[in-house]
Amino acid sequence: MGTGRDKGILVVSFGTSHPRTCKKTIEAIENEIRDTYPQYPLYRAWTSSMICRKIEKRDGVHIFSVKEALEQMKKDGIAEVVVQPTHVLNGIENTWMEQMINTARKDFLDIAVGTPLLTTQEDSERVVDFLIKEWKLEENECLICMGHGTEHQSHFVYEALNSQLANRGIDHMIMGTMKGYPTVDDVLAAVKKLDVKKIILTPFMIVAGAHASNDLDGQREDSWKSIFEREGYEVRCVLKGLGEYKEIRRIFVEHLEKAMRDNED
Q1: Is the pTM of this model over 0.90?
Q2: For 85-100, how does the pLDDT look when each residue is reduced to its tens digit (9 = 90+)?
Q3: Is there a domain that residue 2 lies in?
Q4: I need a labelling partner for 130 at 20 to 30 A (CA). Which of 6, 146, 193, 255 fits?
């Protein structure tokens, strides 16, 4: 690949309208990548047009779409692009990103693309290792991770994590989703089979934004916290996005490093 003058890195995220969690997650991932490759300019793009419009209206700050970021990189004389998404899985957002990238390939000598967090079996094993290392549970506690969920065929990754946890004999950590499978009802059914009284709820999303505040920890009767409290459990919510954890950020950096290496071969 090229020199620091003609190669650039594009980090693509879904985005968030919450400045504090953005700094702790998306910016933290970007900074780790920037520290790893200080010789290359780093660009940001978000795939949620709704969030980008909200921030521009509220803060007067324009955040590039993938298309706009690639156009700016071309204007800046970038000839070779390395893209790293901060998506959890290869779902709808990642597919849209790839479509934009493919449209722009004619404008660059080369575009290499890193993979989302959960792409390979090794990725899943590392995330399970992270969960086991990070969460030291008491005997009567259960950790429930709330993923976003997707209608995309990649939805299986959540159940794959549950299977890996079960294969290691760990039944007090359960993965569920807001908009897919396993549902909150599936998770509740699994919890009822355990001898636990305390529930820890935490988002399995890159940022702890609106979904974490409302759907997980909200006061509405359909929030996960309300659902489990009605069932008599003592519930504690830990609103910490995956991007806040060094181990998770490191996986993204390594995916970018692999994209760099594969492109040089």
Answers
A1: yes
A2: 999 999 888 999 999 9
A3: no
A4: 193
- Beta-bridge partners for 175: 145
What is each CA distance from 222 to 144, 209, 230, in whole angstroms? 16, 17, 10
Write the pLDDT tens digit of every residue in 100-140: 999 999 999 999 999 999 999 999 999 999 999 999 999 89
What confidence score (pLDDT) does residue 211 get?
76
105 and 163 inside one domain: no
Give me the number of domains the chain comprises. 2
Element (H, E) at 144: strand 141-147
Q: Which helix (H) or strand (E) holds 206?
A: none
State the Rg of the chain over Cα. 19
Closest CA to 200 of 181, 228, 180, 219: 228
Give 145-157 as a DSSP string: EEE---SSGGGHH
Q: How far, rounded to the nearest angstrom, does the alpha carbon of residue 11 sit from its chain's CA centroid?
A: 12
The CATH number linked to 211 is 3.40.50.1400
Range of the domain at 44: 7-116+244-264
